[in-house]
Amino acid sequence: MTKTILDQNRIPLTRVELTKIKVRAMRRGFWFRVLSRIERASIDLTIKLVERVRSLLLAKMLTSVVKKLLEAMESRVASMMKTVGRSLAQKMSRTAQGWGNTSAAHWAADLGYAQYLTVMYINTPAMFKL
């Protein structure tokens, strides 16, 4: 599973990183769909004028805009892993521990297992979902 910038809990505020995010968003069609004209202009001006953001006010504003863009570009599986996958992994872990499986304690924190459960949930027909 690939790590996203949001998973790392940091938003890069350098010219190079902002340019990479902008190019990826434009290629995937999110640049104009998700951001307002003012938000696009603020990122464009930052890319043109600043090598690295030092202003706390500008950093806060850009962080919220970049987070909005990155969340919109996140895949369906990755976004559902946060809600469905992790809770399913925790439930399965508790159930298996109740049955005596001591190694199941690690299942709740296993991102691969959460991803597997998420994909299985997505592919389960609606009539079988609780």
Labels describing this entry:
130 residues; mainly alpha; 6 helices; elongated; disordered N terminus
Helix content: 55-70%
Query: Would you tell me the structural class of the helices and strands?
Result: mainly alpha
Unreliable runs: 1-8
Counting DSSP H or I runs of 4 or more residues, the number of helices is: 6
**Cα-atom Rg, whole angstroms?**
19 Å
Pattern of helices and strands: HHHHHH
| Share of residues in strands | under 5%
Termini separation = 27 Å
The total of beta strands comes to 0
User: How does the major sheet shape up?
Assistant: none
pLDDT averaged over residues: 88
Coarse morphology: elongated
Q: Please tell me the total number of domains.
A: 2
Word description of this protein:
The chain is mainly alpha-helical. It has two domains: 60 residues, no CATH class; 52 residues, no CATH class. Helix content is 65%, strand content 0%. It contains six helices and no strands. The protein is elongated and about 60 Å long. The two termini are 27 Å apart. The N terminus is likely disordered.
